[in-house]
Design the sequence.
């Protein structure tokens, strides 16, 4: 079993929809949680960074962490065609050398 | 803005060649990382470095070596390139205790 599981999709939604992207993990030591967005043929770009449980909001993006269920989510409100990309979750147990464990990525397509 | 740059966007090499991939960051970050990304396998850590001249093996170091002579520069070396090293190579950097920022990637093809 992988340490981090992420549905690869693809996920196709109409413009304006609310998108929910999810990851589950097995290592209870994970404390730092990240979401990256990766456009085709580009490097991943950091979207959200949270520590421990709770919610964090940034514009149309909300990251949620539920450590008791070992489950993290990224919500995108009012989705736009420019949100079409692969979304990677990542997590680490400590902030020191912060070795990240990545999910496989979910491909999202937002169509007009 | 954090800036991580990689020496090439696309590279084509022949089997057996020695290949150098270079990464430079301009934010004085302590940590630097090399990953490869393959369809269905996600990002896999090859090597990382937490200080100048220091290096640690990641999950898939075989066939690779690294060099970090200056804080801002981290090089990945393929001593004798093989076709199974065809991949997207991503460099990242981070300050201590924080998350990673990625470069644009180098798509390497070994023929």
Sequence:
């Amino acid at each position: 079993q992988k340490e981090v599981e992420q549905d690869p999709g693809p996920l196709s939604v109409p413009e304006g929809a609310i998108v929910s992207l999810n990851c589950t993990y097995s290592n209870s030591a994970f404390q730092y949680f990240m979401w990256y967005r990766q456009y085709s043929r580009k490097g991943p770009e950091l979207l959200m960074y949270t520590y421990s449980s709770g919610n964090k909001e940034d514009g149309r993006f909300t990251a949620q962490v539920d450590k008791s269920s070992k489950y993290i989510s990224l919500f995108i409100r009012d989705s736009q065609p420019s949100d079409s990309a692969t979304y990677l979750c990542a997590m680490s147990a400590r902030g020191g050398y912060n070795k990240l464990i990545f999910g496989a990525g979910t491909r999202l397509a937002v169509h007009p | 803005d954090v800036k991580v740059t990689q020496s090439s966007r696309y590279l084509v090499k022949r089997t057996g060649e020695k290949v150098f991939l270079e990464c430079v960051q301009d934010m004085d970050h302590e940590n630097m990382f090399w990953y490869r990304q393959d369809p269905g396998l996600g990002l896999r850590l090859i090597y990382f470095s937490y200080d100048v001249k220091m290096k640690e093996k990641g999950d898939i170091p075989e066939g690779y070596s690294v060099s970090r002579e200056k804080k801002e520069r981290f090089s990945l070396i393929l001593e004798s390139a093989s076709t199974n090293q065809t991949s997207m190579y991503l460099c990242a950097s981070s300050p201590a205790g924080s998350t990673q920022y990625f470069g644009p990637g180098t798509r390497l093809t070994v023929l």
Notes: The first strand of chain B starts at residue 4 and ends at 6. Chain B has no helices and eleven strands.
